[in-house]
Amino acid sequence: MSTAREDLLAAGLAVFDRDGFEGATVAEIRSRARASNGSFFHFFTSKKQLAGTLFLEILQTYHAAIITAVNDTHGAGEGVARLIRAHLDWVVTFRREARFLFEISRSEWSEEVRGAQRTENSRLTDGIERWRAPLLARGELLPMSATLFFSQIIGPAQIFCRAYLSGRHHGDPREQVETLIACAIRAVVAPGAPERAGGTS
């Protein structure tokens, strides 16, 4: 059974998705959550704080899906493919959450949220690096920074995802997955790298 706080966050997501951040009102969020004014302000000081809290919770969910896609049994090419599939699957499965995360969120939210976001981003980097570092050390992945690596993997896929989330393109972005994987492998995987970690075929 959901809690009042969870109901408010779910209502906020629905209202932000429909009306955007600027168009959303506390009154509409309360109405959808069937929550009193006092209940709303017990959990959140403002619409912006609710949105920031929602952003961080969705970001954690997204990062968990990405981090758990790879482990030390996955070789360079296989890992790249799994990361791209995880990203596309999450966006399509959680379209409303993805739209909020990638299309609706605002940079002007409080420094507290931005600090927590940096912490979450560091956790994502650490999670991927646990898989990437041994492959990098063995020369199976091309040398580049963690930021550049992630941009090569997720950046092109994200172009399709943003078009899908904004409604500019109605096709499932997963239709492009094989081409996206092939391009990413050419960009980051060393020629001749074994299919699986440790050099096993």
From TrEMBL:
PROSITE patterns, alphabetized: HTH_TETR_1, HTH_TETR_2
DNA-binding region ranges: 25-44
Keyword vocabulary terms for this entry: DNA-binding
Keyword DNA-binding applies: yes
Domain of life: Bacteria
InterPro entries: DNA-bd_HTH_TetR-type_CS, Homeodomain-like_sf, HTH-type_TetR-like_transc_reg, HTH_TetR, Tet_transcr_reg_TetR-rel_C_sf
UniProt xrefs under SUPFAM superfamilies: Homeodomain-like, Tetracyclin repressor-like, C-terminal domain
Entry-linked Pfam families: TetR_N
Residues covered by the HTH tetR-type domain: 2-62
Keyword Transcription: no
PANTHER family listed in its UniProt record: HTH-TYPE TRANSCRIPTIONAL REGULATOR RUTR, TRANSCRIPTIONAL REGULATORY PROTEIN
The protein's name: TetR/AcrR family transcriptional regulator
